[in-house]
Amino acid sequence: MRIHNCQPAPSYPHSDPLLGIDWTMTLMRKAQANETLQWFHGLYTEVGNTHWNNNLGTWNLTTNEPENVKAILATQFESWPIASLRLRFGLLALGPHAIFSTNGHEWQEARAMIRPSFVRNQIADFECIEKHMCNFLARLPSDGSKIDLQDLLYDFTMDTSTDFMFGYSTNTLVKPSPEALEFIESFTYSLFTAANRGRAGWVAFWLPNKKLNDAVWKCKRFIDHYMEEALAEGKPKASYVFMNQMVESGASHEYIRDQLLAMILGGRDTTASTLSALFWTLARRPDVVEKLRAEITKELGDEAPTWETLKNMSYLNMVLKEALRLWPPVASNFRCANKDVVLPKGGGPDGQSPVFVPKGSGCRWVTWSMHRRKDLYEEDAEEFRPERWETLRTSWEYVPFSGGPRICIGQQFAWTMMSYLVARVFQTFRAIEARDDREMAIKLGVTTSLPNGCWVSLASVTTEATPCHVVQT
Questions:
Q1: pLDDT level of residue 472 (50, 70, 90 thresholds)
Q2: What is the DSSP letter of 462?
Q3: Any keyword Phosphoprotein (predicted)?
Q4: How many C-beta atoms lie closer than 10 Å to residue 432's C-beta?
Q5: Cα radius of gyration (the chain)
Q6: What is the mean pLDDT of residues 20-27?
Q7: Is 336 annotated as a binding residue?
């Protein structure tokens, strides 16, 4: 501490500093009310951008300083593995071998196996996305009746991701089987519950939860059946299929199942999360929709999007950047120090001095809050204003896909899927309107979601753009 001129960081004003039960109970109440992220955001203003809190006897650091996030994810990467409760959550919900819950050599092997799925020629092949896009558009009413768009977005990303990664789609948009519906419900419940148990602290893992155990079992049973069906179909035509590659590698059944669950989480939940919040906002921002449609009409007309046209649509890309700033799908994250370390900011009266973090301490950073800092994004930081990206240049204060060695390997696929869907929707529909006057609420699990849904109505264009028909793979 003396060598690095460290200063102490402030602490949460506990009424129970010995055990921190007050902090844990408040966190649970905020989670019940879907106010966790807003509470975290307020604490950074009230207590400090970096501060300590006690969660059931365990002191952890929390920060929304870009320099600290850079240290944890990049410059001090080896000192901050996934561990402690985050690791136990991963083992519970995804399995012990999933890429999101492993470290070291096992994590490197999983990443190397997944990487070929995301090479340029794989992502730029829009045949897969267009099939499910047609199914998605066919489900949207054009008579002005209201619909919860969030449900369909999760179905679209599920169908597209499973088709792209495994060569065999779940087809939830076309004809969802009872087993698929049960899996989706169980998968959503197990991820949300396991994540909340991790935040609540070690005590939660000693409390029995039969419903959670049943949900995890149903997820594994579905994946087992899904793998059998997909492999029985024979090898798909795609040049690279993640699941086939794993099977050919000689990996165990359990290992393959864990990676499939992780890839469904990464491909389905994250993209649908951001798109749901974006369309919720677009339904209340006709000015943005008008500019989007003008660019889409100019660049695409009635033609289907291509890799090149999507890259050249500057306003569409600014809209997506702004959506990922305000609603990063993984809004909060956690690491645990495996040795004594020093983070560059957080200590002293002004929070600008280095802060010492003892071995075994956890550190949480809240991307959702960091992306809303007015000193980083101006006074209108909490407003949806895509035009800010005309001049804004960012570094570690903008990390919707994380950063460092564990940066999201599928970020280009997610970006392509989002831009393709937005472009096709506004080729087909000229307007979107809100059908719910409630404020946006954010439910925090592993990813974020809208607990009240995304209720909208859509008005179609005079002539159908880029005609397509329902395709079942």
A1: very low
A2: S
A3: no
A4: 23
A5: 22
A6: 91
A7: no
